[in-house]
Write the structure tokens for this entry.
Amino acid sequence: MDIDRVVKLMPPVIVELKKEYAFSNDAIKDGIFRLLEKHCTVVYYPLNNEKTRGFHVKRFVKDKREDFVFINTANPVSEQIFGAAHELGHVWEVANKILKEMPGQSFTSDEEEIIINRFAAELLMPQDIFRHSFFIHLDDMHLNAESLKLEDLIKLAVMQMNDYMVPYEAVRRRLVETKIISSQVSDILDKHRATISEVVKLFAQDQNTMLDRVTAKKTIPGLRTMLEQIENNKLLDDYTICKIKKDFDIDSVSGSLDEIVNVYTGDQLNDQK
């Protein structure tokens, strides 16, 4: 597989995808969840004893194949974000879109996973802004790019993790992909993986960050409203409804919020004066 050619074909795919969602800046971060939810049904649920970030499946719903993605919320937010971007690559069929531009080529399942991981990296950490933010941090720390201590490189990596809300390993690979560090330096980092993992945790603790936060959410977006409609129309028995509520920690909304109110814009408020 010619990965360089594959990467050159990715920007139009990403541009097409991002047209469907208004991002406030180039760093998508946790906005990836809303983007994913536009394209499939997402189940957020913690599996404490599983290492998986998530997975994608297709199922028939009323004679139509639908996409479903599971996100393991027992993982830190950074892992959830990268997992969501990866699964979006499968839902969006990125590998097939690229194959259309490469007549006569085919990908193995392992190659497709490499492509999808690269897609997630390109989507979450666009090359130009990734390089720019890295060297801004480098200057702010008054460091010399030609003679960095490993400790300082790890500090910079943690800053990048915080900027894009992604795991350390994703940043390490992206540093190579964007030609900030060489593959030889990456190998040195990989060699000290265990020690670096502990150092990353220490540096991350020094920042006001959500990187290590575990949400442990149990939800399917829109599930509460759907259950209310099912319950009101008696489409399921009470036992099944209660079990779903228990499994997803759904509590009833107390009190009534049915009162009608008027909402005024600033101009309308000025007109009232």
Summary: The mean pLDDT is 86. The radius of gyration is 22 Å. The CA atoms of residues 198 and 204 lie 10 Å apart. Residues 109-124 form the longest helix (16 residues).
